[in-house]
Specification:
heterodimer; A: 316 residues; mainly alpha; Arc Repressor Mutant, subunit A; B: 176 residues; alpha+beta; three-stranded antiparallel beta sheet; 42% helix; Vacuolar protein-sorting-associated protein 25 (chain B); ESCRT-II_cplx_Vps25-sub (chain B); WH-like_DNA-bd_sf (chain B)
């Protein structure tokens, strides 16, 4: 609201609305005055009044993004939010955060819609696949094969024939063969054994595009033995999964593990890993295997878990 | 209080104080513990103990090594001794037990052998005479605690080689 008086000293009075409850922090939290009086000693009030009413109408400060620079000395330009000091920085960060939040929610909206559609697609394919199974005679073999390949390319396992290799599919078989190519040399470099997580990282890094899902990797690995490939999947008692060269004999490693432990009197998994140059995870599995075979025994205390040569068996 | 007791090598081996997960290893470990408990109690002439005492005793608590056998594992050792016939629980809560470095049957045998050797079959003895009498000074069962003695005689009673009777105010035994 503006008032224009014709007195010698021109004044413009700007009446303020009361502060909203969610008012952002500013130079003043509150004031006893509800108006601002602007005095114009010389002139300029007409021009000022025009510009001010223009801006009050347009309210450009509500739509304009906050300026990125922190030049607090700069003269305020009309329409820009003046960001002063800490308060200004905080305000900018808050705006940015809100913006990001909004973007993410919107993106996920699309994803949930996609997932709903995907589910429908899978259901549809399954029902068609079942129909094929039932009415084998009505569809030509060629069409069946084509449809099956479409299913496969969508990642749906072949529902028509029972795989001799369990849940494996052609895709996993091919993948298994591929893995041999990728992993042979790295395995040799790492003493013939790698944890499945290490394999996952290595393989995906090698592929670059068309990354493998963990399920696909595990399913492919499960077929290694059956396909008589030079690698195999091994699951330890603890549940840890590793890939080994067929030529790798973990049991033979135990003899040298025992020697190493004996030399040092006793070792923790970490100490052993460091000495031998293995990951701590695989080192622990080796020590546990040695314990299972009776070569080592354990000392479990507040100081940690240490392995000793199994003197219970070797000493009288 | 350690006296001249010689600890076995296992006592200085930290894994001795961790219950071993490997079954074969555990078997050896428990056998070593049983043997240690019996020789310890024999030397210290301790015929009974509470579980609380056991926990703090140097037997299960090697202060120098900074290792103690956890109470669950102590229970397992005690159960092994019970199965072998060297231990008997004195209460329902399993808080205190009788420990016999020789099984009652073995004591019974020794006592009966002495009775036969000295031609005293068909004689009557008070319990006190058997364990503290002059005649038994050279015998191994001299100084045996009453609880164990009674069980030894009960074992003989089962074999019809003896009968526990009342003699005056106390108890005695007749050998056949």
């Amino acid at each position: 609201m503006l008032n224009f008086t014709g007195n010698a000293i021109a004044k413009i009075v700007v009446h303020l609305h009361p502060a909203p409850p969610n008012k952002e922090p500013g130079p003043f939290q509150s004031s006893k005055n509800s108006y601002i009086k602007l005095s114009f000693r010389e002139h300029g009030q007409i021009e000022f009044y025009r510009r001010l009413s223009e801006e009050m109408t347009q309210r450009r400060w509500e739509t304009m993004p906050v300026s990125q620079s922190l030049q607090t000395n700069r003269r305020p330009q009309s329409g820009r939010i003046r960001a002063v000091g800490i308060v200004g920085i905080e305000r900018k960060l808050e705006e940015k955060r809100k913006e990001t939040d909004k973007n993410i929610s919107e993106a996920f909206e699309d994803l949930s819609k996609l997932m709903i559609k995907a589910k429908e697609m899978v259901e549809l394919s399954k029902s068609i696949a079942n129909k094929i199974k039932e009415k084998q005679g009505d569809i030509t073999e060629d069409e069946t094969i084509r449809f099956k390949s479409y299913l496969l390319s969508m990642g749906i396992a072949n529902p028509v024939t029972r795989e001799t290799y369990g849940s494996g599919t052609q895709y996993h078989m091919q993948l298994a063969k591929q893995l041999v190519g990728i992993l042979q040399v790295p395995l040799e470099e790492r003493g013939g054994i790698m944890s499945l997580t290490e394999v996952y990282c290595l393989v995906n890094r090698a592929r670059g595009m068309e990354l493998l899902s963990p399920e696909d990797l595990v399913n492919a690995c499960k077929m290694l033995d059956a396909l008589k490939l030079p690698l195999r999947l091994r699951v330890f008692d603890s549940g840890v999964m590793v890939i080994e060269l067929q030529s790798h004999k973990e049991e033979e490693m135990l003899a040298s593990a025992l020697e190493t432990v004996s030399e040092k009197g006793s070792l923790t998994s970490e100490e052993f890993a460091k000495l031998v140059g293995m990951s701590v995870l695989l080192a622990k599995e080796r020590l546990l295997l040695a314990e299972k075979m009776g070569h080592l025994c354990r000392d479990d205390s507040v100081e940690g878990l240490r392995f000793y040569p199994n003197l219970f068996m070797t000493q009288s | 209080m350690a006296m001249s007791f010689e600890w076995p090598w296992q006592y200085r081996f930290p894994p001795f104080f961790t219950l071993q997960p490997n079954v074969d290893t555990r078997q050896k470990q428990l056998a070593a513990w049983c043997s240690l408990v019996l020789s310890f109690c024999r030397l210290h002439k301790q015929s009974s103990m509470t579980v609380m005492e056991a926990q703090e005793s140097p037997l299960f608590n090697n202060v120098k090594l900074q290792r103690k056998l956890p109470v669950e594992s102590i229970q397992i050792v005690l159960e092994e001794l019970r199965k072998k016939g060297n231990l008997e629980w004195l209460d329902k809560n399993k808080s205190s037990f009788l420990i016999m470095w020789r099984r009652p049957e073995e004591w019974g045998k020794l006592i009966y052998q002495w009775v036969s050797r000295s031609g005293q079959n068909n004689s009557v003895f008070t319990l006190y005479e058997l364990t503290n009498g002059e005649d038994t000074e050279d015998e191994e069962f001299h100084g045996l605690d009453e609880a164990t003695l009674l069980r030894a005689l009960q074992a003989l009673q089962q074999e019809h080689k003896a009968e526990i009777i009342t003699v005056g105010d106390g108890r005695g035994v007749k050998f056949f």
